[in-house]
Amino acid sequence: MLHDPLRSPAVPSPGGGLDGWLAHLEARNSSAIVLGLERVRVVADRLGLRPAFPLITVGGTNGKGSVSAYLETMLDAAGYKVACYTSPHLLRYNERVRVAGREATDADLCRAFAAVESARDCTPLTYFEQGTLAALWLFQESGVDAAVLEVGLGGRLDAVNLWQADCAVITSVDLDHQAYLGDTRELIGFEKAGIYRGGRPAICGDLDPPASLLAHATALGADLLRLGTDIRVEMTEDGWSCRVREAVFPALPRPAMPGAHQFGNAACAIAALCSLRERLPVPMRAIRAGLAQARQPGRFQVIGQAPLRILDVAHNPQAARALAASLANLAPTGRILAVFAILADKDVEGVFAPLAPLIASWHVAGLDGPRGLSGAALGERLAAHALVHEVHGDVATAWTMACRLAGPADTIAAFGSFHTVAEVMDLLAPLENPHG
After folding, report:
1. Of the residues 273, 293, 313, the one at which a domain ends
2. Residues 324 and 283 reside in one and the same domain
3. What angle do CA 60, 87, 99 make, to 5 degrees?
């Protein structure tokens, strides 16, 4: 019988601080994704995780990170001690766990991991499941007023769905992670709708939601609010307004995060807070402040000018279409050069196809790890579509070459994966902080 790392017994806390904990969890888990809630529930019960504070769960194929950022910033501006749990991270694991607007410290995360490890005994947990329990343990210990929980994968069987959300948001439904969620929007929509609860607000930000999502919400008796019908974005001369059924939120500033799709994301966040106004009242000033202040690294993030340099984690067709729309809306100047690397289990053609008409040349590279697609294989995919490209040894080299070839009027866009953006950020970090 083969040894299953998930079934290893609990071990003493590893040395090496947070890095030691993360290395321990990665080594223990040969399977990065194992869906299901029963194992997580057992350990949560042992830990006594019964959040008394309101929970807002945010799922969706794309946009959930942005909606989570709006919710966190608006609640913070309203004076609440708000917690936020997101994934994946770009540079530091600490990015995933925030309390009162600050990333959790290494020491806090180590305490939380140790608490979960002690409680799990021999119960198998994946990397993500242990991280989710650690975050909730830390939130409960910190005495937060509310928490925003971003779904890791799907919804119905994701670890954050263990708790009964006071409001659940689904931003969009499109093809991604088909090996786990199904290969149609109807199958994926059903999985995502699993975060909805009967009698509780259920926000849907997809303008054309799958029938399976609507049917599940109806069967549950959830209080469904849909973007485009119950939630409306109305552009005005002095900004925009958001209508949530009979409530009107007027004279709103443009979201700080770029892209036309951000109005829908922001409206979903406003609708969620509107639905919880009796328990978590948020004044208009806090909503406006949240719109003006919310940021998400790696989402059409401009990191330089002349040439314009943009980072975007777009890694599925829907996100690629949004990136293409944002690039097309830029003032026409010079060429657009792409720095592109992607995981092998993604819809590679579905990602580069909507961008191909805009890109003058592609600088591609492979990503390390068992899921990474090699630069040579990616180059073959582009060559099959007669796209001008050059294969590089790694993302850093691809970025450096694109910067060398770009003129002041050109644009460089790095995209395809969180890993792609993280590798560019790693390259730039010493330049931004030369003294360490």
Report:
1. 293
2. no
3. 110
How far CA 428 is from CA of 92, 336, 424, in Å, comes to: 15, 20, 6
Tell me which of 293, 321, 345 is where a domain ends: 293
Q: How far is CA 419 from the centre of its chain?
A: 13
Whether 334 and 224 map to the same domain: the answer is no
> Is residue 309 within 8 Å of 104, Cβ to Cβ?
no
**What is the model's pTM?**
0.93
Say which DSSP state 339 is in.
Answer: E
> Taking Cα atoms as reference points, which of 264, 269, 274 lies closest to residue 290?
269
Q: Are residues 94 and 211 in the same domain?
A: yes
Crossing angle of helices 127-142/17-28, nearest 10°? 140
Name the β-bridge partners of 99. 83, 102
Same domain, 189 and 245: yes
Nearest in space to 23 (alpha carbons), one of 34, 7, 11, 41:
11
User: For residue 195, what pLDDT is reported?
Assistant: 98
- In what helix (H) or strand (E) does residue 362 lie, and over which residues does it extend? strand 361-364
Residues 165 and 161: their CA atoms lie apart, in Å, by: 8
What are 105-139's pLDDT values in tens digits? 999 999 999 999 999 998 999 999 999 999 999 99
Which residues, in sequence order, are bridge partners of residue 389?
362
Q: Are 228 and 207 in contact (CB under 8 A)?
A: yes
> What are the tens digits of pLDDT across the range 353-378?
999 999 999 999 999 988 899 999 99
**Containing structural domain, residue 408:** 301-432
Number of domains observed in the structure of the chain: 2
**Helix (H) or strand (E) run with residue 146 in it:** strand 146-150
DSSP string of 18-36, one letter each residue: HHHHHHHHHHH-S-S----
